[in-house]
Structure formats: structure tokens, C-alpha cells
Design brief:
Blueprint lengths: L1 E20 L5 E21 L5 E7 L10 H19 L6 H5 L5 E7 L10 H16 L6 H11 L3 H6 L2 E6 L3 E4 L7 E6 L6 H9 L8 H11 L6 H6 L10 H7 L2 H10 L5 E4 L6 E4 L3 H11 L9 E6 L2
Parallel strand pairs: 3-4
Antiparallel strand pairs: 1-2, 2-4, 2-5, 5-6, 7-9, 7-10, 8-9
């Protein structure tokens, strides 16, 4: 048995624009994604001596269905792709075994901290962690480009987690460009009890005209983000009115608490507050940990937030 332990960090969409629908039916997105220190942890055990099979145990949250967990999908896609590649590339270690489908038993113990239907990519991060463990265990059979394509076939956010940090993500999510780090920004994250199913959110978006997208202004802004002469929060806030989330209004319709939380966090003196992904989590940025921590002490005792999950975090 070989055992691997890996951390699966959550993400925020610092802004998110929807640019249309691609021929394959997926939405074309333009977003800066940011890794944060809120994380799930995975213990992945591979049993070469056991017959092919899979088991996953989720710990820490009772709203996770193991049968629908993206780790299982990631494992299936990895083995399917490895079998196909081994059939045409005999140089892969143990190619004879893999092309016959003689894969080992995989067991995952997943400790959840990132809530589901929050827009923080917990399931996608877990899936990416699974892919990275399998890539290491099987001797790196896939190139970076191949693993990236494999990841996007598991889920749109999964490729980002192969990179982490701060990235500009485009198209379905597989076009990724690293951006100068925005690490170290203090965050307060509030997630209402109600979640937002992503398909429902995009259905609302598809029923309305898309907001204007100024490609040049965004290109100029990304150039500012890539500078390193000022602190991360100042660089980020230079985006001004570009820092929108096109899914926010749609999610507000589904979960009105999102707008109320956003407005409340702005009222605490946050430098910025926005919903991440399709929601329902809202993040607020502060210019110091002391200010963030003081707000947390107030928010956690405020009856308005009684049904919310509240997290102290930071960009990494």
C-alpha cells in the first residue's frame, strides 16, 4: 500500500465575467481566480495488491454525497485516459498492465472544510488533488497539457487547482495564465445556509443579454496586476468597476441573503466585498488582519449571520 496526504485549498473568483456560450454548450468565462488557505485534506491510499475498486469516506461535513464526489470522477477519467495512452505508448511504466485495465484499488479519506454550493471550488480542488496524487503514483504518465485537458473534462474549475496561486482563467477554465501573486490579503468569508446550484444560476444568465465586456480595459488591468511596485490589495483594487461578477444578480434572485451579506460586509469597512463563483459565499477583503479579526468578532455574534458559515482566511 502507498499512502499520500495532500491539501486541497479553496479558491475565490476575484471577478468573473461571462463572455458567451461556446459551440460545445459550455460558457466562455474570464476570471481571476485566487487560492486561499481554507482547505480540505485528502489521504489517498493505493493498494496494488487488491482488485480494482474505489472507496471514499467524507469526514467533517454531512452535506457531501460520496457517490457524487468529483474525486471519483477524477479517478475514473485518469484511469480511462491512462489506459488509452498505454495502448499507444509502450514506454509508459507498466503499460501492459494499464492497457488491460489492471488498475489498483484506491481509497480516499476526505476531510471537508470547504462548504458545498459556495462558489469556492471545494469539490474541484479535491478532484485536482486526486489527479495530482495519481499522476505522481503512476510515474507522471501525462504531460502538463494532457493533465490540464483531463482536468477540464472532470470540471471547469479543476485545471486552476493544478496551478494554484493567482491565475487568469479563460474559456471553459482550461486556458490559464499565472498572474503576479496577490497573496497575503486578509479575508472574511460568509456563506449563507442556502447554496446556489451552478446550472440554475447559468440558466438565469442565459435568459438575459450579457453585460458589455471591454477587452482592452481588462488587458490593461491584468498588466497592472502583474506589476510588483505596490501591495497586492492596492493592485487588485485598481480594477475599480471591472471587478464584477456576472453571476451575482442571478444568484441574488435565488438566495436574497447574498446581497444582504455583501452590503453588511461593506458596512464593516471592508475594502471590497463580492460573491465568489455562482455563490452563495461572499468574501470581504480588509487592509489589515487586525481590522478583519475585529469584524469577525462582531459578525460571529450578530443574529443576522446566525445561520451562516463564517471563515477567517487569507489569499495565498
Amino acid at each position: 500500500m502507498d499512502t499520500y496526504e495532500i491539501t486541497a485549498n479553496a479558491k475565490l473568483n476575484l471577478f468573473l465575467r461571462v463572455r458567451g456560450v461556446l459551440p460545445n454548450g459550455y460558457h466562455s468565462l474570464y476570471s481571476v481566480m485566487q487560492e486561499i488557505d481554507l482547505a480540505d485534506t485528502l489521504t489517498v491510499s493505493v493498494y496494488p495488491e487488491r482488485e480494482a475498486g474505489f472507496d471514499i469516506k467524507c469526514i467533517g461535513r454531512n452535506d457531501i454525497d460520496p457517490e457524487k464526489n468529483l474525486c471519483s470522477k477524477a479517478k475514473d477519467r485518469f484511469f480511462s485516459s491512462l489506459r488509452k495512452k498505454a495502448s499507444v505508448d509502450p514506454s509508459i511504466p507498466n503499460a501492459d498492465l494499464w492497457r488491460k485495465g489492471n488498475f489498483p484499488y484506491v481509497e480516499i479519506e476526505l476531510t471537508k472544510a470547504v462548504p458545498s454550493e459556495s462558489g469556492m471550488g471545494g469539490g474541484s480542488s479535491d478532484a485536482a488533488a486526486t489527479l495530482m496524487v495519481l499522476q505522481e503514483h503512476f510515474g507522471n504518465p501525462f504531460t502538463e497539457e494532457e493533465l490540464n485537458q483531463l482536468a477540464v473534462n472532470v470540471g471547469a474549475d479543476v485545471p486552476f487547482f493544478l496551478y494554484g496561486g493567482t491565475c487568469l482563467c479563460e474559456s471553459v477554465g482550461e486556458e490559464i495564465e499565472s498572474v503576479s501573486s496577490l497573496a497575503g490579503i486578509p479575508l472574511l468569508i460568509v456563506k449563507p445556509s442556502k447554496g446556489v446550484p451552478t446550472p440554475e444560476c447559468f440558466h438565469v444568465i442565459d435568459s438575459k443579454p450579457l453585460p458589455e465586456f471591454d477587452e482592452k480595459r481588462y488587458a490593461d488591468y491584468i498588466a497592472v496586476l502583474n506589476g510588483d511596485t505596490v501591495d497586492p490589495l492596492t493592485r487588485f483594487l485598481a480594477g475599480g468597476d471591472l471587478l464584477t461578477n456576472d453571476l451575482e444578480l442571478a444568484s441574488d434572485e435565488k438566495v436574497p441573503e447574498i446581497a444582504a451579506i455583501r452590503d453588511a460586509l461593506i458596512g464593516t469597512g471592508a475594502s471590497f466585498a463580492r460573491m465568489t463563483g455562482s455563490g452563495s459565499a461572499v468574501f470581504a477583503m480588509y487592509d489589515s488582519e487586525e481590522k478583519r479579526d475585529a469584524v469577525y468578532e462582531c459578525v460571529k455574534n450578530d443574529p443576522k449571520f446566525a445561520d451562516c458559515d463564517i471563515f477567517v482566511s487569507k489569499t495565498i
